Amino acid sequence: MEEILEKYKTTKEEDVKVWFKAASVNDFPIDGGACVKYKDKQIAVFNFARLNRWYACQNICPHKMEMVLSRGMIGDHKGIPKVACPLHKKTFSLENGENLNGDMDAIATYPVKIEAENVYIGFSD
Ligand code: FES
Question: Which CATH superfamily is domain 2-123 in?
Answer without folding.
Answer: Rieske [2Fe-2S] iron-sulphur domain (2.102.10.10)
